Amino acid sequence: MEILKKKSCWQIVVGKVVGVLALQGAFIKHIEMLQWMGVSTVQVRQSQDLEKCDGLILPGGESTTMHRQIHFSELESALREFAKTHPVMGTCAGLILMAQWGLLDVEVERNGYGPQIESCVRTLNLKLPKKRKQKFSGIFIRAPKIINVGNDVHVLAEMDNEPVLVQQGMCLAATFHPELTHDTLIHDYFLRTRKRAYGRQSQTTPPQKCAAASLPAICGPIAPIPKPSGDSPS
After folding, report:
1. 9 in catalytic set
2. pTM of the prediction?
3. Which of 66, 93, 131, 185 has its CA 20 to 30 A from that of 167?
4. Residue pair 215/113 in contact by the 8 Å Cβ criterion
């Protein structure tokens, strides 16, 4: 599937610039996709970088290393404050950080689907608001598993009856890597996120158990991912 260069509605709906946390992980892939969509980006490495941003992406990577880098850079407080008033999307490790900071009312198990050898590509049925169900190739690499969700968290996609794409208010998160595909659908949906887009920001409700279903030990080989270039998540 070829990426289509198209003007995003981001400038009209949410703002002008998307920040991508650029301390570790697959941040270059998000930047490449956003730029193909006509969106201006900022690599966020210091708290003052957030002043230029109207939204933020927390990329995949290694969550423990990323958290240490955030702590070393004294960024955590600024990131959490930013998320109170701006749209934020997290992928893989980014989702783990969002759960740890209380931005999403979910409980997450790191590497919940197994180690690197059990990485896979699965076809997902997206259930985006006001849209027909659409198929999306989810790339899972040492993916975290969402094992609990709160009442204000909306599940937008599942794999074997387990949530893999969720939204709460302005926070959107995926256990997989949409930035490694040639499909801009999820990034475009994030760019259209409005305040109170889907669910509430508050964390007042207790989590509830998700429908459980076991994933096969090996869910298939990873399909070759064509260009763009850049570092793969760890």
Report:
1. no
2. 0.77
3. 66
4. yes
